[in-house]
Design brief:
The protein has about 80 residues and is α+β, with helices and mostly antiparallel strands. The chain is about 25% helix and about 30% strand.
Length: about 80
């Protein structure tokens, strides 16, 4: 089927939340040790993410919420 060529490749992805930065970093290390290219850790202010492709070519994002109560109050 392919992807929408009018949309940048980096925006076409599935994002999943992980419970902690420790898990995000451990997953990044495990992916890289398996030879998978990982982009990030990317700081989005309210959360931090890593990006990679699954074996079918789908872009996946794993994200950890890093926002504070003050950040949410400011929103």
């Amino acid at each position: 089927m392919g992807r929408d060529e009018n949309t940048p490749a980096w925006t076409q992805h599935l994002a999943l939340e992980v419970p902690s930065m420790e898990e995000l970093l451990a997953t990044k290390a495990r992916l890289q040790a398996s030879g998978i290219e990982v982009v990030g850790v990317t700081d989005h202010t309210l959360f931090k993410s890593i990006y990679f492709f699954d074996p079918n070519g789908h872009r996946l994002e794993l994200a950890c919420n890093t926002a504070t109560a003050a950040m949410f109050a400011a929103l």
